[in-house]
Amino acid sequence: MRRTGSALGVVFAVFALLATAPAWAASDDLDFYQTVDREEVGTEDTFRLTVVVVDAPSNAQVKVPESDDFAILSSSRSSQRSISLSGGGPAVIQDVTRQVLTMQAKRPGRLKIPPSEITVRGKTYRTQPVELTVRAGRVGGPPASAQSGRGRQPDPFSSLQSQMQQMEEAFGDMMEPDRPTIPRGDSDLFLRASLDRDTVYVGEQVTLSLYIYSRVDLSSVDAVTMPKLEGFWTEEVESPTQLSGEQRVVDGIPYRAYLLRRRAIFPVKSGTLAITPAEADITTGFLFAGHRVHRVSNPLKVKVKPLPPGGPKDLPNAHVGSWRLSMDVSQTQVELGQPVTVKVTLEGVGNVKNVTPPTLKGPAALKIYEPTTSDKVSQQRHRVQGRRVMEYLVMPQRTGSFTLPPLEFTYFDPRARKYEVARTDPVTLTVEAGAGGASSLSAGTSQGSTDAANEQKNVLTAGGLRPVRYQAKFAAPGVPVWQRGFFVPVLLAPLGLLLGVALLGGVRGRMALRTEAGRGRQQAKAARKRLADAEKLQSGSNVGAFYGEVEKALHGFLEARLGMPVVGLTREALAERLTASGADAERRGKVLFVLEACDFGRYGGGGDPAERQKVMDAAAAAMEGWA
């Protein structure tokens, strides 16, 4: 309890010291002076005058010097409180207020800056005047040691300002590549747009950045209107959700630079393209002391050069940058009837979303479906890069070895200033016979039917005809029919049949199923039930299971109606069987459409709910009304 009480006592003592600070300050004279950051300047240079007042009341106003020989370009004010405890004596508390004026001399000569003034409790305090040597033009160079109106030490912030100016002069291009100019009317807060380059080729990226330069506190930024970018394809690179400033020095004046937007723009035509100014509403200050201002940025121009001669005719403007082309195959050895996935990938730096990879082509023995496209875009050092992938489904139609030819992609490299060609290697696919032993999906079944039809029948053996021999034998007289053992059962058979019909009437359906017609009806009924089960999977996420169930249902129904297996038949052979069974052209078209859609849906997509409903309706229509 004692330790807690002593701690609370210390806290209350500190608060008492802070509360009585103004009373202490009132008992002493003010510490009031002004300094400059250099003694010799040029008429085109800017310099800083720092007015410092220690322990002034909060309502005291400093009157800055006014002179016809100097122009005040900007002004900022800051304050801080320091508490020092030393030697066991009382605490020393100081409130230090600094007002920094950015000034420029209007004429050369030995000029004098008048003193600053402040009035406290009816008493007026004045600083010492400051003399400067002003020369015509620009003197430049780091500032000299600060000069005080009362012979004091230099201002503690003057060394930091000197270092910032030295960094600006030594590394100006790195700190501020666009070198914005400070507008006369909005020197404390202005909006600036900049480009990382102003001369490019058609299709080459230009990075547009929009910054706020401010020497005052910002609260929020509203209603940002980006420039109209006619003649450009744009891609968002960076759009901060919070204001985060970085220190930048412009013409010797420190600013906080806040990034609003950064976009990658790709010119789609040659010539000098104009970029209109951006606009923004900015709120300065905090809470109820905020002030809303409207700022307009500077306009920009980009000189766009056409692509040099020597390239392909009508080369798309998106084919500019640095690109790599590759082709990946899921497997190079496959059984007949199994799909192969081929991915054509184009990756690099440039307009990823508009670039067009070359189209995959192949021999007639490989059926190539329409590809699906996916993009992955990223940024590195504000440059748009990424990859575009075209995924193809390839279905072999017969056995053998087949070659996918190499692909070529021609583009213009703006860095090398020449046309380049990205190529892939050819890929050989080996197609083997499947489990059924068929060598071709288009001719395997029909060839087997032809062989069976051409098979020779009723051919005599090598031994020729054998002579007909008749051998007679004698038999005893037969027993009368009514004396034979089967007579009584045959006589009672009608009655037994009646009883059998009465007792076994319930199982006649099962007995009928054993016939060919009964089995066909049962298979057709099972196929319709499976189609109903597939309808339950229609709205699910497993697209492959839905299309697989629809295909099995249709195969089962066709086997029931045609009386033969249809799984191994090609589309042509199946169409011939349907024609032979009496199916009309409309029904054949629906059957083939459903089978093609199921193949593509299981291996190449089919995720559209409307497409799945269309397949269900076609399958149901193919099964209904069969003669």
Write the layout of secondary structure elements.
Blueprint: H1 2-19, H2 21-27, E1 31-36, E2 40-42, E3 47-54, E4 62-63, E5 70-84, E6 92-105, E7 109-113, E8 117-120, E9 123-126, E10 130-135, E11 147-148, H3 158-170, H4 172-175, E12 189-195, E13 199-201, E14 206-214, E15 218-225, E16 232-238, E17 245-250, E18 253-267, E19 271-275, E20 279-284, E21 291-296, E22 300-305, E23 321-329, E24 333-335, E25 340-350, E26 366-368, E27 372-380, E28 383-396, E29 400-404, E30 408-413, E31 418-423, E32 427-432, H5 444-453, H6 487-503, H7 508-513, H8 516-536, H9 543-562, H10 571-580, H11 585-604, H12 609-623
Parallel strand pairs: 2-10, 13-22, 24-32
Antiparallel strand pairs: 1-3, 1-11, 3-6, 4-8, 5-6, 7-10, 8-9, 12-14, 14-18, 15-20, 16-18, 17-18, 19-22, 20-21, 23-25, 25-28, 26-28, 27-28, 29-32, 30-31
Could you report the average pLDDT, rounded to the nearest whole number? 78
What is the helix content?
Answer: 25-40%
Structural class designation: alpha+beta
Detail the poorly predicted runs: 1-28, 144-177, 443-465
CATH topology of the largest domain: Immunoglobulin-like
Termini separation comes to: 102 Å
Percent strand: 25-35%
Query: Architecture of the largest domain in CATH?
Result: Sandwich
* Biggest β-sheet: strands ordered side by side in the sheet: 5-6-3-1-11
> How many structural domains are formed by the residues?
4
Gyration radius, in Å: 47 Å
The backbone outline, from C-alpha atoms, is: elongated
Q: Give the number of DSSP strands.
A: 32
Sheet with the most strands? 5 strands, antiparallel
Give the C-level CATH assignment of the largest domain: Mainly Beta
Count of alpha/pi helices: 12
CATH superfamily heading of the largest domain: Immunoglobulins
